[in-house]
Amino acid sequence: MNRGNREAIQVCIRVRPLLKPYEDEEIWCTDSNSNSIYTIGANQSDSSPFRDKEIKLRYSEGQGPQSFTYDHVYGPEFTSQQIYQQISKPIVQRVLNGFNGTVFMYGQTTSGKTYTMLGTPDLPGILPCSIKDIFQSIAKDADREYSVWVSYLEIYNEHINDLLVPGSNNLKIKDDPKQGVLIQNLKHQQVWTFDQVILLMNYGEEHRSYRETSIHEHSSRSHTIFKLYIESIARGDRGDGRIRFGCLNLVDLAGSERLNEFDIRNQSQLGETGHINKSLFTLAHVINKLAEGKTQHIPYRDSKLTRILSFALGGNSLTAIVCTVSPAAMNFQQTISTLRFASRAKIVQNAPHLNEILNEIATVNEYKAEIIRLKEELSQINEEKLSLQIAYNKLERELENARKEVESHREVHKDAINEHGKDKQKIEKLEKTLEMQLRELNSHKSEFSEKYQKLLDRFQEERKYRARLENELTEHKQALAETINSEQGTLRYLNKLILDAGGTPVEIPNPSSTYQASPQESNFLESLTLQMDQDFIPEPKIHDEWTSQSNKIIENYKQQLANLQSEYHDKIQNLYYHLSSETKKSPAKSIPESPDSPQSPYNKDLFSSIKINFDHIIEEYLANPSNSPDLADVIVSKLKDYRDLLGDQIEGKYDDAIVKLEEFFKEKISTSNRVEISQLTDHHSELLKKLRDQYENMMEKLEQNYLQTLQLFEQYFLENDEYQTKIY
Ligand code: ADP
Ligand code: MG
């Protein structure tokens, strides 16, 4: 349903002439230019002090001058036809075009409502003018085909009476979902001409029942609704099959004067008095509500009139209200009341719209067209459906492929997850192992640090010990050198004696080369010390290297020490050997240790050398007269001295060697472990024993040599007569 634009109810005022002689002074004036109506007191130009005073006294005491403005205000000079032209004609024309239209006549009894609506044969009212206009317009319109129906009803004491059917009274109202409010059994008479309608109108008027009241009284309490239904459809092929329909309601209301006597807000008194027309009362109430802008709870259903004409009040209708008033001072209150109603009514907004439906053929055609359109649409949809189906199938295939792919990916993913799980386990295992190894390493680290520190300490001690040994060695060397020098001196002296005796001097041994650490060893020791001091990193590699190197050094050192010891031992042996060999120079029975050696001084020639020496000694004795006269004494004494000297020297060397050995072993023991100490102790005792043996052996040999030498000398002396002669 189309919703039209909002259009306000058109409101106009019609002031009739004064009805003389019934009515007194005329107090209302109109101005059609400004569309206003006012009391003569309100317009100074029309007033005189005398009249003002009189009017005030008689009619409008306490209310002051009044002035109202409307869409149109018509004074007594205007005809109904003129009012029709301005007010109703535009509505009638639009009704012909499918709109609803309503024209109300509102006002007190005798204000001219019926006069304005129906008029007289000479001066037709709005109704005949409308009908005339409608049929003229229909006649003029060649494009459309019109159908007109008429109904005519009266609402009297809230009863709906069909004026076209005498006796058809108290008709019921029903709500039709499609057509809205309908009056059951109301006659709708189709009409084709103006005269037909006028006849019907007159017929209805004639058949109004006035049994209970006088005509005047009845008329003042009844409402009449003259309704024209107009349908039209475009003629021939030009039409679109659409039917326009509209209805024109021409409403002549009951007199409003009794309403004025009553306060419309005081509804409780309604019905009690019996004076108040319910439909009129509800109309005023509805207008008030609508004027207040309320759209809900409009009491249309409170009266028959408002229920039947609800569409005309705020609904789908072009509506105009002609308010008729008397200009007389005596009707001042009623006029004022009507004007106030009019003022409220002009605020009300309606929403008229075009009423149009399709006729059957048009409907069929429209359906056909719709079917064709739908068929086209359907085939289009089918095509689309087909292409969609194809696309869908394609998509489904793709989806299936994607599904398979996803499935295979899922499998791969599953495998990967398994692998990942395994890897994770491996990693966890590795991590645990690593953690354990780390813990172990840390413990090793601390262990190693301790060990390393110990080794470092040990190494420092070894260094110190080595330094001490070196010092010791140097001292020994010096002592040895001194001993050797002294021995060499002794040997030189012995050699002199031997030479003097004509023997071959013994070879004096060279002092042994002193021990020196190899440059490589020194460098390594220095670098190692430096490294340990500056860049200590306790790593297994360094530790191993250090251990092996230090072990090597210790071994080397031990070897060197052993060498030194053996060298020292050899030197001591040598020393004793030389000492013993010197004492064995006499040709006696001394047995050389290595007789086959060509360098050995203990050869057989020694005896002859010694013999020569004996000669030399004797010669020396003879040459010196200060000597004792006993040659034997001299020789013995000399040999004795020599023996004692050698004995002292051997003893001194022996003691010296014992002390040195003692010191050396003590020192060695202090830095050795138990096994080493035990070995050293054994070695020490062995050496001491050996030394003691040597010493005793040497002393014994010395004694033997001395005795042998004495015998040899005696023998030699006895064998040489020459010497005996010389001496004795
Ligand atoms: P209502 O229908 O309001 O009760 P009527 O239309 O019957 O009043 O009018 C009452 C009297 O006044 C009638 O005799 C009528 O001819 C007369 N009358 C009403 N309006 C006019 C007018 N504009 N010009 C001349 N006479 C009028
Ligand atoms: Mg009337």
UniProtKB/TrEMBL annotation:
A single GO molecular function term of this UniProt record: microtubule motor activity
Source taxon at top rank: Eukaryota
PROSITE patterns: KINESIN_MOTOR_2 (PS50067)
Keywords: ATP-binding, Coiled coil, Motor protein, Nucleotide-binding
Kinesin motor domain span: 8-348
Pfam families associated with the record: Kinesin
Record bears the keyword Isomerase: no
Coiled-coil region list: 357-486, 547-574, 681-712
Binding site for ATP: 107-114
Gene3D superfamilies: Kinesin motor domain (3.40.850.10)
Keyword Ribonucleoprotein annotated: no
GO process terms (BP): microtubule-based movement
Family of this protein: Belongs to the TRAFAC class myosin-kinesin ATPase superfamily. Kinesin family.
Name used for this protein in its record: Kinesin motor domain-containing protein
